[in-house]
Write a structure and sequence with these properties.
This protein is of the alpha/beta class. The protein has a domain at 1-84. It is 38% helix and 11% strand. It contains 5 helices and 5 strands; from the N terminus they run αβαβαβαββα. It has helices at residues 2-10, 22-28, 50-66, 86-89, 121-136; strands at residues 17-19, 32-35, 72-75, 99-100, 106-107. The strands form 2 sheets. Strands 1-2-3 form a 3-stranded parallel β-sheet, with helices on both faces. A two-stranded antiparallel ribbon has the order 4-5. Strand 2 (32-35), helix 3 and strand 3 (72-75) form a beta-alpha-beta unit. The chain is extended, with a radius of gyration of 20 Å.
Length: 138
């Protein structure tokens, strides 16, 4: 998203990224970003809490007024829980299958493949057609 934001900014349109992945956001270096220390997938707040979601979006948008330095990342003042214990279970590997890490949690993620994966056969056909035309024009 940060790469797209920078391109839009180059056309004179201000952008702001809302993120829960601080290290990735800093690496991409969007023009402006606000960081919410929430689990991935909950960047705009907790489910079924519209007042909190509104407050998060309002705080994020108000960053347009205060962020003047390109590449700035501002942390929003909201907390997922009263302490950081929730971080111990987020993205933790489930036990019971796959290889274990030093914590004893098994890695049950799907194996990575160098081959592209497509949701539909029509996606594969379209991608191969584009690749074929690109090779033909080279």
């Amino acid at each position: 998203m940060g790469l797209i934001a920078r391109e839009i900014e180059s056309e004179g349109i201000p952008t702001l990224c809302l993120t829960s992945a601080l290290s990735i956001t800093r690496a991409v270096n969007p023009s402006r970003a606000v960081y919410l220390d929430y689990p991935l997938g909950h960047t705009a707040g907790k489910p079924h809490e519209p007042e909190l979601q509104d407050a998060i979006i309002e705080a994020a948008l108000s960053a347009f007024e205060s962020m003047e330095v390109p590449g700035s990342v501002e942390e929003l003042p909201f907390h997922w829980a009263k302490n950081n214990d929730w971080k111990d279970s987020v993205m933790r590997r489930r036990s019971g299958s796959g290889s274990s890490d030093k914590s004893g949690h098994a890695d049950d993620r799907s194996e990575r493949s160098a081959e592209p994966q497509y949701q539909r056969e029509s996606d594969r056909v379209a991608a191969e057609a584009i690749e074929g035309s690109a090779q033909g024009s080279a």
